[in-house]
Amino acid sequence: MEDVFAVAMEAVTAARPEDAEGMRRLADEWDAGRLDLSAFLPTRGSVAAAAAERLAIRPAVAGFLAYAGLRPALEWSLLGARGLLAEGTWTLGVCPFCGAPPGFGDIIEDGRRQLTCHLCGGTWIFSRVRCPLCGADAPRDLTRLEPGGADEAYFIAGCTRCKGAVKEVDRRQRWNARTPVVEDWGSPHLDLAARRAGYWRPIPTLLEVASPV
Ligand SMILES: [Zn+2]
Ligand SMILES: [Zn+2]
């Protein structure tokens, strides 16, 4: 079994022993050469869907393995492509480099919204008044959950049409916020707030891996 997944597989099994069997199937299929990295890549609307289906493991777990395992390789192989994206040319709600859904949103210094892909580390500017998950852009379609208190400047940008949500931080107020991936994985309580409000997120969260609905 490749090192890329080993640590993440152990984490999955530790969080939920019920998933151990699926992890064994993954190891067996991989070692037998019947499964490769392509099963973990993004397809329309999801990440690692092929792996989840082939191995009969939960989509959140397959997605988590992809995010934990693929990032170093993707980040490295896409290094040369970053400069090729001219500003303002990409208006879709998926990563222009790898096709994965947005992982986190930042309101940057000039007030624009920058989305980040956790799968490859890519970033792109996206409209603040449109849902990146379904394209809805009527004012009544977009909601904003603001936990406030210690989480001042963090919010959950939700959509009443598709019920999808993206976690975001306004960096004009939180100049010392850490990288998007660290901010995201470090705030499972915001995922819980989003889930309680009836929203889903387009990428796997630790919450889903550890405690499925
Ligand atoms: Zn990407
Ligand atoms: Zn939407």
Give structural attributes.
213 residues, 7 helices, 2 domains, FdhE-like fold, alpha+beta, binds zinc ion, six-stranded mixed beta sheet, globular, single chain, 33% helix
Low-confidence stretches: none
What order do the helices and strands follow?
Answer: HHEEHHEEEEEEHHH
State the helix count. 7
Taking all Cα atoms into account, the compactness measure Rg is 17 Å
The CATH topology label of the largest domain is: FdhE-like fold
Structure notes:
The model has no long low-confidence stretch (mean pLDDT 93). This protein folds into two domains: 76 residues, no CATH class; 123 residues, FdhE-like domain (FdhE-like fold, Alpha-Beta Complex), CATH 3.90.1670. Helix 1 packs antiparallel against helix 4 and helix 3 crosses helix 4. The protein starts with a helix and ends with a helix. With 213 residues, it is an alpha+beta fold. Strands 5-4-3-8-7-6 form a six-stranded mixed beta sheet. Strands 1-2 form a two-stranded antiparallel ribbon. A hairpin with a 6-residue loop joins strand 4 and strand 5. The site of one zinc ion (ZN) has 8 residues, from loops.
